[in-house]
Amino acid sequence: MTTLELTAVVASGSFVAGALGALTGLGGGVVLVPLLVLGLGVDVRYAVGASLVSVIATSSGAAAAYVREGYTNMRIGMLLEIATTTGALAGASLATRVSGAVVAGIFGVVLLWSALVPAPHLHPDAAARPGRLTKWLRLTGTVPELDGERPYAAENVPAGFALMSLAGVLSGLLGIGSGAVKVLAMDRAMKLPFKVSTTTSNFMIGVTAAASAGVYLSRGYVDPVLAAPVTLGVLAGSLLGARFLVRAPTHALRWVFRVVLLALAAEMIRSAWTGRI
């Protein structure tokens, strides 16, 4: 395979990863890292480094569209970014000190857990139960629905903040943006509507990844030749995914979320166990 052909393959795969990442709120890294490691034989640390750069592109591409459509809650996102950024720095430092097989194995387990967790619930009465911290920080908003605007309010803010710290560690360690943990934390712990959780996750992912990418760059694990086609492909895919999200039924998004994660989790765990990575 020539360099040009390899670049085209990487860009095409990154396009698919970006579209799936934007649709599910996961960030493109959950598809991109297995593609690079298992499909193209890239060292897992370089794959994670390229993924983190692409995750920034995913967030930038999708977040602007979601903010314009009125789904993203920027106030909640900026509060939770304090936790994710701190965790991301810790995770990135840890990743440079453990073997590639360990990182791949953890990656697979996280994906498997994310796929098997029951589907999030809707919370139509969330706005009726705002706590004192929610009122003080004004963590409320409205989400566009077919029949008008539906109000909501964040609950269990400390629990959500703690889970976001874990999401940050996973982001820095695995280069995936940790959207799976973020979406589930915002939906389950904070009881935000699913599309608000997904879009706010995309808004947050870029800041979290930027903190981690700095550590990888300083250790020499960001290769511009690999990161360039990855970033362009993911950015294009995320813009397309963002267009479909506002029309896509939530039930369909959840099934895409699960099927993709199950397939990738099985392959990453098998490869780590057999020593292929």
Can you put this structure into words, describing what you see?
This protein has a two-stranded antiparallel ribbon. Strand 1 and strand 2 form a beta hairpin. The chain is built from eleven helices and two strands, in the order ααααααββααααα. It has one domain. The protein is mostly helical and 277 residues long.
How many extended strands?
2
Major beta sheet, strand line-up: 1-2
The helix fraction, in percent, is over 70%
Radius of gyration: 18 Å
Number of helices: 11
Shape: globular
**Overall pLDDT, averaged?**
77
Structural key phrases:
single chain; mainly alpha
Q: What's the gist of this structure?
A:
The protein is mainly alpha-helical. It has eleven helices and two strands.
Fold topology:
Layout: H1 3-24, H2 29-40, H3 44-69, H4 74-95, H5 100-116, H6 132-137, E1 140-145, E2 148-153, H7 157-174, H8 179-189, H9 194-218, H10 224-245, H11 250-274
Antiparallel strand pairs: 1-2
